[in-house]
Design brief:
Length: 274
């Protein structure tokens, strides 16, 4: 099997092929936009996303299985997906392609950053070994990756944290078994959700949001608006209600909820959470 066949989302010219989930080449987010999105937690980004998307908010873009953030102190991460499939229990993959690691690293290096490595572990739920540890976290950090989402395991937790490489995973483990890249630059499924190479991802201790292509351009503005809408209405009403008679407080909360919904409907045509 040649290198392009192992990662079918790579075009013959070496570039990542476009697909419906990827940011359009003519509408990239600036690094400043990404930094602003990183200031909010993932639920806040979700609140903005649900106002602009045509996708099903109960099925699409979000992790459908529970995740675990092993570095919550690092806060959220945001980046574009580079994808890889592993099967640590199977020693044959190393024999099939002895150059897999080198070819995979060339793929990762060729994708613009910041990048999040999305790893599908074919062994799950019986996780045998980890792709991640001190060496690979430092290696991927050097290649422009900020972290990983893997439905398998990680190890060398303290060393990964020291590298500044965030990990959202299923669990910890002690070994690497026969791990090596099997396929890369391809569609993967992690925590019940499909992810595509090049897809913008926002993730933290709550889970992840893999933003569909067409929703990327409006994500920053919608997230900023909905965060301000909460602060100006329902949060302000609750925080300012201390000491009020209960009936007055309840009316204040009802009025604030109505104001929140009216503001969202005026701006997006949808009422939002409240």
């Amino acid at each position: 099997m040649d290198e392009l066949a192992r990662h079918p989302s790579i075009a013959p010219d070496g570039k990542v092929k476009a697909n419906w989930l990827m940011p359009q080449a003519n509408i990239p987010l600036s690094h400043g936009d990404l930094l602003q999105l990183k200031r909010w937690n993932t639920p806040t980004i979700y609140n903005g996303w649900e106002q602009i998307t045509k996708h099903d908010r109960t099925k699409h873009a979000i992790n459908l299985e529970e995740t675990r953030d092993f570095m919550p102190q690092m806060g959220p991460m945001i980046g574009y997906a580079v994808t890889v499939v592993i099967e640590p229990s199977n020693p044959m993959h190393r024999e099939t392609n002895p150059k897999a690691w080198s070819e995979y690293r060339h793929y990762v290096a060729g994708v613009p950053g910041p990048k999040i490595v999305v790893v599908q572990d074919l062994d799950k739920p019986h996780v045998i070994g980890s792709l991640w540890g001190e060496v690979n976290s430092n290696t991927h950090r050097a290649l422009g990756c900020v972290g990983t989402i893997t439905d398998g395991a990680i190890r060398d937790l303290d060393e990964m944290t020291n590298a500044g490489f965030k990990a959202i995973a299923r669990r910890l483990c002690v070994g690497h078994a026969w791990v090596c890249p099997v396929r890369w630059g391809c569609s993967v499924e992690v925590f019940g959700q499909r992810n595509e190479p090049g897809q913008l991802i926002h993730a933290d201790k709550h889970g992840f949001l893999a933003i569909p292509n067409e929703d990327v351009p409006g994500l920053l503005e919608s997230s900023r608006f909905m965060d301000a809408n909460e602060c100006n209405t329902v949060i302000a009403a609750a925080r300012g209600g201390a000491g009020l008679p209960i009936e007055e407080l309840l009316k204040r909360l009802d009025d604030a909820s109505a104001a929140f919904g009216a503001a969202a409907k005026k701006h997006f045509g949808r009422t939002g959470e409240w």
